[in-house]
Specification:
alpha/beta; Rossmann fold; Arc Repressor Mutant, subunit A; 2 domains; 5-stranded parallel β-sheet; 4-stranded antiparallel β-sheet; 9 helices; 38% helix
C-alpha cells in the first residue's frame, strides 16, 4: 500500500455498484478496499485497515446499523462512516445518523457530491490525503519521495520495511492496529501466519524513532489488541 493514499472501504454486496464507486475513489487519489459482507469486513479487520467506510444499509448477512454498532464498540470506535444506501426516507436518514454515521448519501450517488462528502468527513476527523511529498508530524518529518524520516532535522536510518511500518502507524495515529492488520497491509502476508516479525520490527522502530514519550509521541502495545502510536 502506498503510504500517500487514504484507504476508503466500501461495504457493498452489489459488484457493479462496488466497482463503479471503487473507480471513482481511485480516480480521486484514494485507495479503495471493497467488502461484500459484514462478515468479510470483520474478518479482514476493516475497522483497522481503512481510514473511512462507505456503508450500504442492506447486506446479505447483516444491516448497516449493526455494522456501525459493532464499529462504535470496537477499539477503533472513531472510524468515520458514511451511509451509502437507496433508503431515502427521512426517518431512515435520521436513524443512520443517530446510530453513529458521520454522513448519509442516497443512491444513486453523484460522483462529485460523494467525493466531496468523503473529503469533508475525513477533514473533520483529521484524516486527509497526502497530496504533498512531506508529512509533518512534529518534531518528525516524513519525506515520502525520498523515503526518509527525520527527527529535529536529524535523519533516522531505517530499513525499507521499517519506513513502511512507520508511515502506516503515523497515518493511523491514535488508532489501535493489530498484528494481523500489519501483517496483511505492511508485509502482505496472511494474518493466519504465526510470526514474531511484527513484534520485532515494532520494538526496533520504537527504539530508532525514540517514540517513548520523550519527543511528544509514544508507541505502545495494547494488550490483546495490537499497537497504538499517539501524541502525548
Amino acid at each position: 500500500m502506498s503510504e500517500r493514499e487514504v484507504v476508503v472501504g466500501f461495504l457493498e454486496d452489489d459488484p457493479d455498484q462496488a466497482a463503479m464507486i471503487a473507480h471513482w475513489l481511485r480516480e480521486d487519489g484514494y485507495q479503495p478496499r471493497v467488502f461484500h459482507t459484514a462478515t468479510e469486513f470483520r474478518r479482514r479487520l476493516g475497522s483497522e485497515a481503512v481510514d473511512l467506510l462507505l456503508l450500504d444499509w442492506m447486506l446479505p448477512d447483516s444491516t448497516g446499523l449493526d455494522v456501525v454498532s459493532w464499529i462504535r464498540s470496537s477499539p477503533n470506535a472513531s472510524l468515520p462512516v458514511i451511509f451509502l444506501t437507496a433508503r431515502a426516507r427521512e426517518e431512515d436518514i435520521v436513524r443512520g445518523l443517530q446510530s453513529g454515521g458521520d454522513d448519509y448519501v442516497v443512491k444513486p450517488a453523484k460522483q462529485g457530491e460523494l467525493l466531496a462528502r468523503v473529503a469533508a468527513v475525513l477533514r473533520r476527523r483529521g484524516v486527509e490525503a497526502d497530496n504533498g511529498r512531506i508529512l509533518q508530524m512534529a518534531p518528525y518529518e516524513i519525506d515520502l519521495q525520498r523515503r526518509r524520516i527525520s527527527l529535529y532535522s536529524r535523519e533516522i536510518e531505517l530499513t525499507q520495511r521499517e519506513f513502511d511500518l512507520a508511515c502506516y502507524l503515523f497515518r493511523r495515529q491514535g488508532r489501535i492496529v493489530s498484528r494481523d492488520a500489519l501483517l496483511e497491509d505492511v508485509w502482505n502476508m496472511s494474518p493466519t501466519v504465526t510470526t514474531r516479525t511484527v513484534d520485532t520490527h515494532v520494538s526496533r522502530l520504537r527504539r530508532k524513532l525514540e517514540v517513548n514519550g520523550e519527543h511528544g509521541w509514544r508507541l505502545t502495545a495494547v494488550y490483546q489488541h495490537g499497537y497504538r502510536l499517539e501524541q502525548v
